[in-house]
Amino acid sequence: MASSVSSKLYSDDVSLVVVLLDVNPFFWAGVNANSGTNQPAAALSFSKFLSHVLPFVSSILLINPLNQVVVIATGVKSCGYIYDSGGGSDGTSVSDLRAGFLRRLEEFVERDRQLCRDGERAAATTSSLLSGSLSLALCYIQRVFRSGILHPQPRILCLQGSPDGPDQYVAVMNAIFSAQRSVVPIDSCVVGIRHSAFLQQASHITGGIYLKPQQLDALFQYLSVVFAADLQSRSFLQLPKSAGVDFRASCFCHKKPIDRGYVCSVCLSIFCKNPQEMLYISDFKQASADSRSKSDSKRKTLEAS
Amino acid sequence: MAWAGREEEETREQEEGMMKRGRGGGARRGRPGRVGACYADERSWESLQEDESGLLRPIDTKTFQHAQYRRRLLLRTAAAAGDSGSAAPRIQRGLIRYLYVVIDFSRAASETDYRPSRMAVVAKCVEGFVREFFDQNPLSHIGLVAIKDGIAHRLTELGGSPESQIRALMGKLECSGDPSLQNALDLVHGFLTQVPSYGHREILILYSALTTCDPGNIMETIENCKKAKIRCSVVGLSAEIYICKHLCAETGGSYTVALDEAHFKELLQEHAPPSPAIAEYAVANLIKMGFPQRGAETIIAICSCHKEPKVGGGYTCPQCFARVCELPTECNICGLTLVSSPHLARSYHHLFPVLPFNEASVAPLNSYQKSPRTCFSCQQDLLNYGSKSSLHVSCPKCNQYFCLDCDIYIHESLHNCPGCESRRESILS
Q: Which residues form a coiled coil (chain A) (predicted)?
């Protein structure tokens, strides 16, 4: 660990990469079903996906002996730590990577599956808990910052396939702003079907890279060329530029993107046309006099609608 | 008409006397060869403490800081609950603020009890405050006013860009004369009454002096401010003054007095997040806003703020298609307020705050199986943490355990509980 290494070896290209791995079973199962339809890229199965990600993680650890990788799995009902190359009590070496990693990943997916109650139906459009894993990653990075003057440069890499969940908008934006304040870039590699507006904004605001690879069969090549280099070296590399970031807001009433709208001065809700009554304000004033459970249910309706 | 009472004068003298006694040789700082000077200034012996066996060790500030932080957090939520009359932590806050910062550049600001001088410390802290303010309130505006020689004059107009404010402030830092509280209030009152009715009007006065020289009856000015619904707060640097206390009590602001530089910075930063709003003060209104798209890297256009051609980047006003360089801003051509959705999202955490976590301290030997071994968010060991029992906190909603540092980070910066975000009740397809 850092404390046992002399400061001469600690150059500024030591990195800590926190990889957020999307293990949403509804997305990965849906990928196989969709293959053969008019998708631009060949669909990728989860095992093939892992066969690209594992060598990528090893390659980061091999570039610099002081590099550190932490993998957090983003499930559909829970998030959790899968792998930490720093080891903690047991220093996991690169050769143990595959065995320990796969075992813990299986345990996580099994636990996640058990959390789903029987009879719950979900579609391939079910989102994963991106806000949860982003929050875990940022807390871990804060711990690294606290560990002393010599610490690796942290960054977050999101490997996301599931679509964005609109109910996570506020939490994801909070995480993005916190990452921006702590100067932690959020890189994104989208292996799903559509672009992710959340991750585009995340990468734009925090100064990371957003990439949607066209040929998923060559995913390892994309990962190692674009995302493996440390932050210092990025200024010398030709990296994919952002094609454009959609900063338009969605109106709260119809969920359509709008470029001109009306914003409430109290609660900052966005409306496309001048509404007759402002949903959130009238409920809000009532809720402050009523019980809390009522306001919570209204809030859930607002966020889910 | 000077408002300094006898009490303030006596306090000031006592303070000066204490400073002279305590500092010893420290007041004479211009002697580089003198070892005793920095020793007396730093007072390094105060940062040591004896433990149970009589050995010296540095003070463990972590639990103390955490206790301070918890007190602040609970005070804030208690005040919020008290205002709204229910246990709900969600309270209405003034999110669109028009704030004037009034800085005292009178003779008292050249005092050297804050090093290098009160004025320099205030200027530096205000710079940090302005940045933090725009970070937390992206839709708000700040203006700067300086008082010296008995006159108040405006340094900058109400604007939404931190750089121009800071540049104007650092432009000339010189102090002289007497401060006039009434002139400052009258000046700012005149400006703030022109502000739109949905905005919250606030004044923050950074007062170094103990006196004020006013041309008229300051009580009338305070009444006018109260009628215009301007919330005045004061951060004092010397001692508590009755007129400031009265002003803040009448207008619903807060009055605090700083003990030293670090405390001053802390008190100033407390005004950055929006305070619980008094509902009648600002009319709830729908403001027309535009959400421009960011241009591609190859577009060439003449920008309306600098009046010169620019390549790449920039935002296009959706109403008149003029190009502007940065957001948030008002379009120079059509006057539409232009923001991007992240700017609005920056304030959403005030509307959906994280509940304060409950303290849970577990004796290390008993109930070993039930107590969690690691903090849920950062995986730090909880059991070996601290000297005696492990102190940690738990979220009342998701019942996950967190360490103290994560607690502070979650509530002050992240505004998401990782436990609550990492679970989901039911899948909605």
A: none
Residue B328, preceding bond cis, omega within 30 degrees?
A: yes
What is the total count of domains within chain B?
Answer: 3
Tokens of A23: 């293990």
How many folded domains does chain A comprise?
Answer: 2
**Average pLDDT, integer, range B25-43:** 51
Q: Note whether residue A304 is domain-resident.
A: no
In this complex, which of A122, A136, A170 lies closest to B348 when CB atoms are compared? A170
Domain final residue pick, B351, B386, B401: B351
Least confident of A59-63, A257-261, B281-285: B281-285
Interchain contact A111–B (C-beta under 8 A): no
With b for 16 or more beta-carbon neighbours within 10 A and e for fewer, the B33-63 pattern comes to: eeeebeebeeeeeeeeeeeeeeeeeeeeeee
CATH number for the domain spanning A213: value is 3.40.50.410
Are B85 and A266 within 8 A, CB to CB? no
B328 and B263 inside one domain? no
pTM for the model stands at 0.78
Helices (H), B137-180: 162-171
Torsion sign over Cα B361, B364, B370, B376: positive
Q: Name the strand (E) or helix (H) holding B131.
A: helix B118-136
The C-alpha of B287 sits at a distance from chain A's nearest C-alpha, in angstroms, of 5
Both A59 and A115 in one domain: the answer is yes
What is the span of the domain harbouring residue B339?
289-351
Mean pLDDT of B249-259: 92
- Find out whether B93 and B193 touch, Cβ atoms under 8 Å: no
Mean pLDDT in chain A? Answer: 79
Of A113, A104, A111, A164, the residue nearest A134 (C-alpha): A164
Q: Do A260 and B418 touch (CB under 8 A)?
A: no
Interface confidence (ipTM) of the complex: 0.83
DSSP A165: P
Are B191 and B147 part of one and the same domain?
yes
The reply to whether A124 and A272 lie within a common domain is no
Predicted confidence at residue A74, as pLDDT, reads 93
Among A141, A241, A247, pick the best mutation site for testing chain B contact (most B Cβ within 10 A): A247
Q: How far apart are CA A45 and CA A50, in angstroms?
A: 9
| Cβ neighbours of B254 (radius 10 Å) | 16
SS3 B2: strand
Partner residue facing A249 (CB), from B283, B344, B379: B344
The whole domain housing A266 covers 248-293
Q: Which of B103, B102, B110, B101 is nearest to B176 (CA)?
A: B110
- The CA radius of gyration of chain A, in Å to the nearest whole number, is 21
Q: Which of A131, A271, A295 sits opposite B90 (nearest CB)?
A: A295
Amino acid at B400: Q
Distance from CA of B288 to the nearest CA of A (A): 4
CA nearest to B114, candidates B106, B100, B124, B102: B124
Residue B48 in this model has a pLDDT that exceeds 80: no
The answer to whether residue A212 sits within a structural domain is: yes
Question: Does position B104 have pLDDT exceeding 60, yes or no?
Answer: yes
Yes or no: say if B84 and B127 are a contact pair by the CB < 8 Å rule.
no
